[in-house]
Design goal:
The chain is of the alpha/beta class. Helices cover 40% and strands 20% of the residues. It folds into two domains: 102 residues, Periplasmic binding protein-like II (D-Maltodextrin-Binding Protein, domain 2, 3-Layer(aba) Sandwich); 99 residues, D-Maltodextrin-Binding Protein, domain 2. It has nine helices and eight strands.
Length: 220
């Protein structure tokens, strides 16, 4: 979600004459960094489960819904191997499969949840050639034609630089429903008033239009 956050950050920088620093990475890695370094004003993970974990650690002050995302299967553009959207294809040794690491990022955690619900997570792990840290790496393996099939967040598939390389294969909505994106203010904040200004803009009509532009809008 770096893109809408960066665009909003640029606006807040100009309006408030401040510098907004955004650190990107896997949601789990970011949470560990917040906890260990005791630094951070806002936290936007890819899954609300990380908000729950942060709340248990007394790191969350306030939460706000800013958008949605959902997991989808992705293949190389044109689907050269004619792969179907059956999740069991992830366990087929005929395909070079890459999935996210559930210990480092939200897409990995969501992938594990989906495949466990389907009852094939262990089979897919046995067939997986690479575990990646985050969504960005899952895009790269398709762009570089190193993988045949991945699970990733839908939003990245509509970005201009990715549409020529990636094609999506939708997962049954009962297994992969839209996930809420929660922007949280942190107890570690050193600038809580400025953090509130950022949040207020993110949930405003203008902020929501920015999230929509990058594929994180309502999925009703």
């Amino acid at each position: 979600m770096i893109r809408p956050m960066r665009e909003i950050g640029d606006i807040i920088e100009k309006e408030e004459d401040i510098k907004v620093i955004i650190i990107k990475g896997g949601s789990g890695n970011l949470l560990r960094s917040i906890e260990i370094n005791n630094v951070g004003d806002l936290y936007l993970p890819g899954s609300s489960s990380y908000i729950e974990s942060a709340t248990e650690k007394n790191l969350i002050i306030e939460t706000n819904l800013v958008g949605y995302n959902r997991a989808t299967l992705m293949v190389q553009k044109g689907n050269p191997l004619n792969i179907g959207n059956d999740l069991e294809n992830l366990a087929d040794p005929a395909y070079y499969v890459v999935i996210g690491n559930p210990d480092s990022g939200s897409i990995g955690k969501e992938t594990r949840r989906i495949l466990q619900e389907k009852g094939i997570y262990d089979l897919v792990l046995q067939n997986t050639r690479e575990l990646t840290t985050d969504s960005k790496d899952l895009v790269s393996v398709l762009v570089e034609k190193r993988a045949d099939l991945v699970i990733n967040w839908f939003a990245v598939s509509i970005w201009d630089e990715n549409t020529m390389y990636i094609e999506t294969l939708p997962i049954n909505i009962e297994l992969a429903p839209p996930k809420e994106l929660i922007l949280a203010s942190l107890s570690t904040s050193r600038e809580p008033e400025l953090a509130k200004i950022f949040i207020d803009y993110a949930v405003s009509a203008e902020g929501q239009a920015i999230f929509q532009k990058y594929g994180f809008g309502s999925m009703e």
